[in-house]
């Protein structure tokens, strides 16, 4: 695997990251076996990746539909400049928000929400309204709901190979 020039990680770190993204609950002994390191060596590398904020955390991925939130949407939010900070603070308080990103273009933020139904969606959008104009796109399907992050190869190297299925 090619890693970017000046990157704080090497090929073994990349292998560790790939394995942890596929299964964050893998035992250190098994992780070490897969990447060709001893258990103490792999523990030290994972600790360094965490301390350098390359690994940001570990989470369970939960299917929103199976916990009563089957309707998902992207809410595109447009805000006047003086209200950006107020909206950013507000959006952190809404439990229906799965993600919120400050973006370029016509909108200021892109917010992904998960709700019970259209009425619940209306409540969530209304909670945003004192600060914004919104445009909502319902999510019909997610062919790629999440993907692993792989290092991007340097331009002077071969082109990127497709991700394994």
Label this structure with key terms.
Arc Repressor Mutant, subunit A, four-stranded antiparallel sheet, WH_DNA-bd_sf, 5 helices, transcription regulation, alpha+beta, elongated, 32% helix, DNA-binding, Alpha-Beta Plaits, 165 residues, 2 domains
The major β-sheet equals: 4 strands, antiparallel
* Unreliable runs: 153-161
* Spatial strand sequence of the major β-sheet: 2-3-1-4
Number of domains: 2
The CATH H-level homologous superfamily of the largest domain: Lrp/AsnC effector binding domain/regulation of amino acid metabolism (RAM) domain
Shape: elongated
Task: Determine the CATH topology of the largest domain.
Answer: Alpha-Beta Plaits
End-to-end Cα distance, whole Å, is: 17 Å
Order of helices and strands: HHHEHEEHE
**Overall CATH class of the largest domain:** Alpha Beta
Number of helices: 5
Rg is 20 Å
Residue fraction in strands: 15-25%
For the secondary structure, the number of strands is 4
What is the helical fraction, as a range of percent? 25-40%
